[in-house]
Specification:
The chain is 1% helix and 41% strand. Strand 31 and strand 32 form a beta hairpin. Mean pLDDT is 92; it is low at 1-16. It has 1 helix and 33 strands. By secondary structure, it is an all-beta fold.
Length: 413
């Protein structure tokens, strides 16, 4: 079976015009076919670098001539909603929001969420142990609306990200119901749709609460042209809901451990991964049409990633595992075409920009490989700071966020 490279919904056309408007770009694929930035790049290709207030793991998003991202003070959890000029790196606006110190995983941050952006507004989300906050601003920084979605329960902190679909903002509010501290009641898990205009709840689709999961939803359009929202978690496995009503269309049990990566569409498959800090990682692929058929399961610890989301090009999946081992896998057979140890611990998700496979390790090393059936290392660049975010790109810019710095690699005039 040959898989199509990308499966987009016509409903996302306006967002796709912004190129990289959500976590991992168009429909979460992590792919931008056309990019004229030199990859790998030389120091002279860096258009600008700016120090960020605070730090974090959240990724940047792009809208025309602007970069948006979330950062936070690691001491008191103050959140910073930020907007920079894509051309110059100038800070165009900054909004500060006091918050509460709360428990985090040692590799997480108070700013591990990626904003999303449309033609008029940008949307940020963050949480502490008392509230889950969503805020909308104009591109110019005017406050449009704020929504408190209530209590948030997680031993690891908040880390998922919103997406825009039609006139709705979709957010996966997954919470812990197991392994809680004494006296802590289980959280409530749900997939939410808010009005992008007002922030009011349009619908909520309940999910089975087990372990907090962090995947960002994607969209799937079936042969009839009907579009559904696809998500994955421990309690429900893969599941789909109707965009307009939030009605559950189907679900398919698939996972026993935590799902940190985001589901991705590869032709008529939906792919997801599970794992834990102690191992047991698996990659699972099922039919995206809800037929329930499991197509592929990879349980090899050196192949299946836990936190990083895979990237799929055509009939090939590139798996950049948490232990720094990269595998090129044929779909849907699961045949390994090549496997190579790149090194480092990895929390960032790989992307394919202009035909180049880019992965980044926690120690700040960017590795560029050929996105092909034959292994080829094209470059290695050290940025000298922790990286747990994912790059953003358009035709003439590649933007990378380290913990404390924002870098833009551009095309020379």
């Amino acid at each position: 079976m040959i898989l199509s490279c990308l499966c987009f919904s016509l409903r996302c056309a306006a967002q796709d015009e912004l190129t990289w408007s959500r976590f991992r770009g168009p429909n979460g694929t992590g792919i931008l076919e056309t990019c004229h930035v030199p990859i790998p790049w030389q120091p002279s290709d860096v258009q600008w670098s700016v120090a960020l207030p605070g730090g974090g793991n959240g990724s940047p998003v792009l809208a025309k001539d602007r970069v948006f991202l979330l950062s936070a003070d690691p001491k008191d959890a103050t959140r910073y909603a930020l907007c920079y000029s894509l051309d110059t790196g100038e800070l165009l606006w900054k909004k500060d929001f006091a918050s509460r110190h709360h428990a985090l995983h040692k590799f997480s941050s108070y700013a591990s969420s990626t904003p999303c952006v449309d033609e008029q507004m940008v949307y940020f989300a963050w949480a502490d142990d008392t509230s889950l906050t969503v805020r909308a601003f104009t591109h110019g920084g005017d406050d449009v609306w704020t929504r408190d979605l209530g209590r948030y329960v997680s031993q690891h902190g908040f880390g998922t990200s919103p997406i825009r679909v039609d006139d709705k903002l979709i957010l996966y509010d997954c919470q812990d119901a197991e392994e809680l501290a004494p006296g802590v009641a289980p959280g409530k898990s749900r997939l939410l749709a808010l009005s992008a205009k007002t922030g009011e709840v349009v619908w909520e689709s309940p999910c089975t609460p087990v372990r907090v999961c962090y995947g960002v939803p994607c969209l799937y359009t079936d042969k009839s042209g009907k579009t559904s929202i696809i998500e994955a978690n421990t309690g429900n496995g893969f599941f789909a809901v109707d965009v307009e009503s939030g009605k559950r269309l189907w679900s398919r049990p698939a996972f026993e451990k935590r799902v940190c990566s985001s589901p991705i569409i590869a032709g008529n498959l939906v792919i997801g991964t599970e794992g834990s800090g102690g191992g047991g990682n698996q990659l699972v692929a099922v039919s995206a049409d809800g037929s329930g058929q499991e197509i592929l399961r990879i349980s090899n610890q050196t192949t299946a990633p836990y936190v990083p989301t895979p990237v799929v090009l055509g009939d090939t999946a590139f798996l950049w595992a948490d232990n720094g081992i990269v595998s090129c896998v044929e779909l849907p057979t699961g045949k390994i075409l090549w496997r190579q140890r790149i090194g480092g611990n990895v929390a960032s998700s790989p992307v394919i920009i202009g035909g180049k496979l880019i992965g980044m390790s926690d120690d700040g090393v960017v590795t560029i490989l050929a996105a092909s059936h034959a292994y080829q290392k094209l470059g290695r660049i050290e940025l000298g700071d922790v990286i747990r975010s994912t790059p953003a790109a358009d035709a003439t810019h590649l933007v990378i966020r380290t913990n404390s710095t924002l870098h833009c690699i551009g095309v020379k005039n």
